[in-house]
Amino acid sequence: MKLTGAQILWEALVREGVTDVFGYPGGAILPAYDAMLGYPIRHILVRHEQGATHMADGYARASGRVGVAIATSGPGATNMVTGIATAMMDSSPIVCITGQVGSKLIGSDAFQETDITGITLPITKHNYLVTHAEDVAPAVLEAFAVARSGRPGPVLVDITKDAQQSSCEVDWQAAVPNLTEAFDEALPGDGDVRDAIELINSAERPLILAGHGVMQSGAERQIVELAERGQIPIAVTLLGIGGVAAAHPLNLGMMGMHGEAWVNHAIQEADLLIALGMRFDDRVTGNLKTYAPTARKIHVDIDRAELNKNVRVDVAIAKDLRAALDEWLPLVERRDRSAWLGKIEASKGEVAVRDIQNLPDDGHLYAAHVINDLWHLTGGDAVVVTDVGQHQMWEAQYYKHNRPRSLITSGGLGTMGFALPAAIGAKIACPESEVWVVVGDGGFQMTMAELATIAQEHLDVNVAIINNGYLGMVRQWQEFFYGKRYAATPLVNPDFARLAEAFGLAATTVTTRAQVGDAVRAARRSKHAALIDFKVEQEDSVYPMVPAGADLHKMIRRPSPIVETAAD
Amino acid sequence: MLHTFAIYVDNKPGVLNRVSSLFRRRAFNIESLTVGHTETPGVSRMTVVVDTDDYGARRLEAHLYKLVPVQRVDNITIAPSIARDLALIKVGATGDARTQVMQLVDVYRARIVDVSPESLVIETTGTEDKIDSLLEVLRPYGVIEMVRTGRVSMVRGTLPVRRRAPARTSGAAVDTRADVSNCSV
Questions:
Q1: What is the domain extent for residue A406?
Q2: Would A501 be classed as within a structural domain?
């Protein structure tokens, strides 16, 4: 039976197990939209194509399944660029389908023509320009295989209008992708397992650095077993949060620029770093010249290109993390490392007194208090989707995630505007989960149009705006490094509660800590979306902080007593 | 140091762009790049020379493998191999100078492939060193125009290519003196 290219597209998506797509129609993708009605797929109509890509991304991160976004040619396609780059940096598997002008028109500057495969070449794992109906099935199936395989990431399939409209027979057997396997033997990065084990077993002060790869490879159980066998403490990256339960006694917490002081000190004092599914980002290492000066290093990553990139390591292993750990575990000796653990524990005591949570309520509403209360009130069980900036770091510090995939945030690219659409994707992927958006007043306004998507799709997504009237993180940098010259960081905001009500959401404004509990409880009780505008202390800063490029142990610490910048 | 890669890719539109874009965005400088058909239909072979250290070369190899149309990457820097460059050099020479140029061409076993009243075009094949050297001696006569293909390389014999360059190599670089083929200089 002959199918049109548009029908083949949906047939291929259904065969890949796709049930939901996020998209926005337009001229060059109209044949595909018309054919969509014949297939069992839920289409979520977004308000901006960037939102569609973030939703597909949030969907993928929450569920581990490939997220799908669809848009038309030209501006529809270029609007996807930020979302694709975000997914690329954070290794999130998404497939983006774009319409393209008719193949005869390509290169003629036709209406809404843009070279989207050229534009997205550096920010996709791979992309396809499909000009014949015959090529739709192989391209789409291969796109999914590429998106999922190895280190996951975004793939774009650009399909011309005539390829969607013309018909052909499909041989689904022949369309099965045949990806060239990378030459595995003797490629760089095949460090010896025995070397790794010897280093682990002989280390006195080992430390595991756990990244996003723990969840990507499903090694949550293995990493805890490794830690427990060897009594090895674990530090996590921002994207690694949730991969190891925050409540686990060996989990020290987050490392890096806004990591806890004891974690960064532990890295600097360790004699062995076991880096698992992380990539030594500059936000994690600080000054590379002084990074972990006394430590030998083992690095396991599925992407060979990450090995010996930023940090030279002693043993580099390019392998799926779970497979690598399964191989290691029987060889790791049970050791008592209480001296090392005790040393780290002792360093916490000194820090804890500076913690904002231990300070009395002084009548101000602090973002950290809001997030800590949100953690308590949700039982620590919500999927929290954060944007980028101060609130993101406070969330990472004060919401204790015990479940994998329960924190979704833009790490590598640091994309403001990510949270709201990504949360929509997460809610569609996991309708049973309680989903909270934690977002700053700046980032919220970048993609707030998606409130309409929430309303149209009747989604129970709760939004907590951490509203300090500033682009807070930039303001903090200006305060610390630019002499408090607040260039272009103060925001004059709309009334977010009234705005949300106009979109059909329930909304409240919270200005004191006493109101936090009631507002959150009310939002949780209702089966509809709710927005809470938390008007927090304006000039609060995230501590500790390693200034960009500074030595990891040279942190700007919390002032004691807290928050000297508090303005009355 | 200079690293030479032989890269086997699917012969499809846009593949050269994918490969060269990778070098650009990862901040590797291409010294030379050639591309052409291989013995296998549908497969093209690139010879790329890049100035980077051993770590950079390994990372580059890993990045290349992540490109879907790339089938195989051989770092043939330290493998015993034959490397050739082809150059066309247009020299302005009349009268006595013309005779002298023709003698030099002879010494270098190059060929004159075009003669006009005002100029000669010389074709030469060999290692980059040899061509550099010929160019040097021709310069005083007035080099009007020159074009070079860049290096193409092939590993000697039928031994498998060692894909992993040892971390520390002494000197390395392609030993061209053992070439049995030509290279008079």
A1: 356-535
A2: yes
